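EI: anyone free to look at a 577-residue chain?
SC: sure, send it
EI:
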Amino acid sequence: MGDDIYFTRLFSWREQVSRSLSWGHHFLFLNVLLACAIGGSFAYAGPDTETFLAFFYLVVSWLGQMSFITCVVFLLTLFPLAFLGRFRLYLWLGTIIAIISHLTLLFDVRMFLVVKSHLSLTVLNLLVGDLDFKTGINLRFMYLAVPLLILIEIGFCRAAKASVYRIHSHHYTKKAIAAALTACFIASHSIYIWADASNYTPITMLRSTFPAHYPMTARSFLETHGIKTDFEVQHDVEALNYPLAPIETAGEGQDCNLVTIIINGLSYHDLSSRDTPEILALKSRYHSFENHFLPYDSLHDNAFAMAWGLPAGYRDSLRAQRRYPVIMDEMRRQGYHNHLITDRSSLLSAGEANYLTGRSNFVMQKAGGIRDTLERAASAIMKWDPETAPHSLSVSIDALLPTAGQARLLLLHELDAALPGVFHALERQGLDDQTLVVFTSLEGNHALYSKELLYQRTQNRVPLIIMWPQQKNRGVVTRRLSSPFDLCATIGASLLAITNDSREYTVGENLFGVTERDFLVSTNRLGDLLLIGTHATQAYRHSGQALVEGRGGHRAEIRPSLKDLLKAMREINRFKE
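SC: here you go
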């Protein structure tokens, strides 16, 4: 009798599992179709396809990736739950999991439409931890989407249940659709391997269109099959909308000259009445910015940020698409004569200068030490004719970077003594009223570097002094946040008479009327998202951890702000299509 009861229970459990698996496959099929329908929003909002092949890749990636994600969720959740042997419970659990999964997908769609980024572990952790749910994203569509999605999933549940008991089911149709979706998934990865190997950018720029989409590259494919590759690693190329609108100017600009003096290796911490009295005198005489922070530790990244007004993450895409900075294009159109003078320690070659700044029509001259470089700059200014086309002079000095100790102190004294000569040359030529002068640094003092910090606040806080034309803002001190991103907007509005909102071609603001900002957005070498404030820096790590670093290098874990994070992501991804 006991054996009969055991056999009956075993038979009932197997029957329950069989019915659960059968229902689960029908339910999966219906949800694959729904996921593809929702995923069409990614294809619609993604970058424009320039060729038929790119369009074909977008379609097969859409169908293949959305069906793949749905199948993965099924295998990780619903498939193991089928072995509970409780058919009714399985129906309820499956429906709830499907609702939650599609709500997550809808949130990702909304996030992609707003900030051009997908959900990540960081954002998911914030969603769970942010009880106030202040996302900064309009989620009102959820009021309609949630009840509609619940009704759809209940309908799918009943339809799948009816299919379990149906004698004649459309197995061949479902198998054909499943085979087609599988073919799309394989085709999308195969096409991307070819596009990556041949550097076909209309396809490679579509890489981040769909969530959790990591197509195999040519390098990874060959190395997977035991073939060592030596070709250069291709960087991800993304479709950009830069600038966001055609550039317009009020006439032909103000015909003002531009002088940019970059002293790399100089931090705000280096300024003192004992070592740099002349620089402090310039600070008090002209417009000084007391909280000017470099977004990156790298000289080249900061040079790119200053010339383009964009985060360094755009560099590879802009280079692949052969774009040029808006500011340089406009200066070229207005007939500026560009002249670059560097010292013998310069780390910037002519090719790199052209790449970083887009100045294809500049004259580059390499001088000796600091004094010689600044004297040549003053001599070049003395040759300017006020009646000719406007001039742009860039002076880049790197002598402070490789030195330390007493040798560096001597160079600092040499710089302090020679720098005023450039300003005096402008005054003697009568050009000080029609010249914009920018004095700053694009890399701080290496002696202030600390490997324990995620962001080098002391090192990356550098001086910024601006001499405006027509003696504007003389003796003014600004304590609001500023960065090299702002110089692009400043030159565009104050020098070139660009009438566009600066947000249409840069992430910076015009320094002549810079507003109060909560933080500057950047990233570090580890890929952490940095929110640089006046007194502290917030760091959002890939693990979802949020940290704050204050003065003195003190670090503490904080409750992350999803609103700040999404605001930062919207800012940094503004020019992505």
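EI: Residues 323 and 358 are 8 Å apart (CA to CA).
SC: 👍
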